[in-house]
Every structure is written in C-alpha cells, then in structure tokens.
Amino acid sequence: MDNIFFRLVLPLVALIVGGYVARHAFSEGMHTVIASQPGPAAYESTRIGPSPACQMESNFQVRNPLQCQMEMRASREESLVFHAKPPQGMSKAQSETASGWFMLAALAVPLSLGAAALFAFLLFYAARTE
After folding, report:
1. Residues 6 or more apart from 33 whose CB is under 8 A from it?
2. Local structure of 56: helix, strand or coil
3. Does 90 fall in a domain?
4. At what angle do helices 10-36 and 92-129 cross, to 10 degrees?
5. Among 22-31, 48-57, 67-76, which stretch is predicted with the lowest mean pLDDT?
6. Residue 63 domain boundaries
7. Total domains, the chain
8. 3-class state of residue 106 by DSSP
9. Are 112 and 21 in contact (CB under 8 A)?
10. Residue 60 domain-assigned?
C-alpha cells in the first residue's frame, strides 16, 4: 500500500496540483499584462457630407469644380494617413507582478514535484524512525 502511494498516487497528485497552479499563475500574469494596456484610442469622426465647394446649384452643376476636386483629394489623403502612437509601457510594479506570476507558472510543476518528494521523504523517514 505504501509503495503504490509513493510511486503512483503522490506524484500524480503533485502533477495535477502543479498543473492547476501553473494554469492559474499564467492566467493571472496575462490579466496583469492586459490590464496594464491603455484603452482604445478615440478616433475623430470624418466628415461625410459634401464640402461647401461641392454643393450643387439649382441647375445641377457644381459651383467651383476645381476647388471641389482639390478638397476631395485633400480629404482622401488625410483619411489615408494614420499617425500611430507607441503603446504605453507597463509600470514597474505591474511588470514585477506579471513576471512573478509567469515565473510561478514556469516553476509550478517542478516545485510541486519537489514538494511531493519532500513530503514522501518526511513520511518515509518518520515511518522508519518509529
């Protein structure tokens, strides 16, 4: 009975607990990283209606066709240019918190197996000394 416990049950429980701890730690680390990102930028709405130079007169002709074409080209060029700003960085405290969670996620399974081995050694040693 003791042999099955030390060879099968204890390592299996340690792997399952380590897996759950790693999953939770990675999830918390990702939540920290996502929460540190700024919200979406507010975009300025573009004017959709015709410009004053492109308004039609009563005889269905444009008042100033050259000015209308120039304004249409300018509005197209403005809408194609996008000035992106670099994203904000994380604060030092958020970076330390996230890195701690990711380190725990990476070391959860080895730590749980080491804890199980220590627990088994203490149980085995305690059983031998009695």
Report:
1. 90, 94, 98
2. strand
3. no
4. 170
5. 48-57
6. 2-37+51-82+107-129
7. 1
8. helix
9. yes
10. yes
Residue 27's CB is within 10 A of a number of other CB atoms, namely: 12
List the one residue out of 40, 17, 33 whose CA is nearest residue 96.
33
Triad 1, 117, 4: Cα angle to 5°: 15
User: What's the pLDDT score for residue 85?
Assistant: 57
Place of tokens 């701890």: 21
Q: Has residue 97 been placed in a domain?
A: no
Q: Average pLDDT, whole number, for the chain?
A: 77
Measured distance CA(6)–CA(55) in Å, rounded: 87
Which residues, listed in sequence order, are joined to residue 56 by a DSSP beta bridge? 62
Assess if residue 102 is contained within a domain. Answer: no
CA 82 – CA 94 distance, rounded (Å): 30
pLDDT in tens, 15-44: 899 999 999 999 999 999 888 887 776 766
Portion of the chain with pLDDT greater than 70, in percent: 65
| Per-residue model confidence (pLDDT) at position 80 | 52
